[in-house]
Amino acid sequence: MKKLITTIRNIFSIDDLRVRILNTLLLLVVFRLGSYIVLPGIDPNRLEGASDGILGLLDTFLGGAFSNASIFGLGIMPYISASIVLQLLTVAVPQFQKMQKEGESGRRKINQYTRWLTIIITIFQSTAYLSATIPAEAILIDRAFFTFSATVILTAGTIFCMWLGEKITDKGIGNGISMLIMIGIISRFPGAIISEGLARGLNGGLLFLLELIVLFFVVMGVVMLTQAVRQIPVQYAKQVVGNKVYGGQRQYIPLKLNAAGVMPIIFAQSLMFLPALTAGLWANWSADSELASEVGATFSDYTTWQYNVLFGILIIVFTFFYTAISINPKQIADDMKRNGGFVPGVKPGEDTSNFISTILDRITLPGSVFLAIVAILPALASVAGVTREFSQFYGGTSLLIMVGVILDTLQQIESYLRMKQYDGMMRSNRLRGRSRNIAVAS
Fold it and tell me: What domains appear along the chain, each with residue ranges and CATH number?
């Protein structure tokens, strides 16, 4: 406890870090306040809550802003969609590949395209959002005028959220976009704990304590999944330049066990509505409507074993897919060869590329299986009797995002603390006395 208090004191003793933390907290408060401002022309008492599936997942990411029909109803999600589209284009389209290799100017162009694509996606998503989730009886003004004005407001709200995320990245601590998603998820955690505790009551206090213990070990497992790496040793040849010798050092290429992060779960979750949709169309076109209705009901319930088996398979497939487009073993091998590096015992070039690919496949398979297990844990918790709100924190996208963002933020804070220790060494008496001796000798 004393060490924790000392660490907190050291954090706030650094001026730059203290200002960044305060800026982050202020911008997050602004984001949360906007989540409770309802769109003009809506009676909030007549709104329906978000349903299960992808809509419920969006509402979890946005901290209730989606079901509240707030001015931040779509939040940062259109920007996430645009970023994913641009990332896929940099793999499939040569023009975007060339743009990515242009350095800072290329990144600025890609960011500009991402912003414009965000506006386009937000306009389409806001129109669908207004027509599909807001009941007609909740609208107090003319429907056409409401749709136009609400679309403009939702688009402006998404752009403002994007600006908040960029400001957090520049003036605050952590990745701004990820912080906005994380704060939306965490905002629902206290209410989920309270509702679970009330549901258990006094007689279920021991069971509630057991649930918290299980949640603790699940979080530790997700931390291990996020932090686990396989290090590939790389030896650099010595080079003599003038009178100095460069190189000769051994470094490591860290390959993460879960290189794809949370993206496979998001991709798989976005496709899980297709079986129910296909079953609904089948019921309309086929004479065997009873079977189609049964299939639709099965894949509309996220707690059925059929749903979770398909969900897990999709996650494993998308993990391999996203890892393949994120890590290019051939490019890594070419960069190593160009810089005079080699893996001990492996020939540079194609053999190194095949060696890295083999290791990547071996660590991706258990990583993808573990990721699939984490993704279906909320369904298992719900079947075990945990309330739906609290079960969402037993795994899935919510827990992975929270753990990833918190670890990334803590690493940035730790880097500031290390810089402070380095400055303290530069101001130490030993170095100051050494500088005095040098001045006397001169």
Answer: 19-187 (1.10.3370.10), 195-410 (1.10.3370.10)
